[in-house]
Amino acid sequence: MAKYNVKVLKDANNDIKEIIKYIKYKLKEPEIAEEHRKAFKNAILKLKEDANIYKIIDVEIPGKTNVRKINVKNFMIFYRILDSINEVQVIAVYYARSNWQVNIKYR
């Protein structure tokens, strides 16, 4: 099994920060925010070795190919594998019940 370098792109990093900030300050749940931060980190780190175990999603996303997703708590982490440079790129994180099919097109 290949071992990948994992890169969290700027938009995905911002998504994670905003989610954590929302839970911590808006919902006033700092412990839950920390649980989410750890869950996101652990799921992303697992991509180093297990990136291929998740299926390519069937939704067509212009400009992005071979996009996959991981479900983490009530969120979805979207990423793609670039085998040519042995890299996994985390491209976005969305709330599972959001209209992510529309939003991710503009990333």
Between the first and last Cα atoms, what is the distance in angstroms?
30 Å
CATH-defined topology: YaeB-like fold
What sequence of helices (H) and strands (E) makes up the elements?
EHHEEEH
Beta-strand residue fraction: 25-35%
Architecture overview:
This protein has helices at about 10-25, 30-50, 100-105, and strands at about 5-10, 65-70, 75-80, 85-95. The protein has about 110 residues and is of the alpha+beta class. The protein has one domain: YaeB-like fold (2-Layer Sandwich), CATH 3.30.2310.20. The chain has a 4-stranded mixed β-sheet. Helix 1 runs antiparallel to helix 2. The model has no long low-confidence stretch (mean pLDDT about 90).
Highlighted features:
107 residues; alpha+beta; YaeB-like fold
How would you summarize what this structure contains?
With 107 residues, the chain is α+β, with helices and mostly antiparallel strands. It contains three helices and four strands. The chain has one domain: YaeB-like fold.
Question: How do the strands and helices of this protein lay out in sequence?
Answer:
Blueprint: E1 5-8, H1 10-26, H2 30-50, E2 67-72, E3 75-82, E4 87-95, H3 100-103
Parallel strand pairs: 1-4
Antiparallel strand pairs: 2-3, 3-4
Helix pairs in contact: 1-2
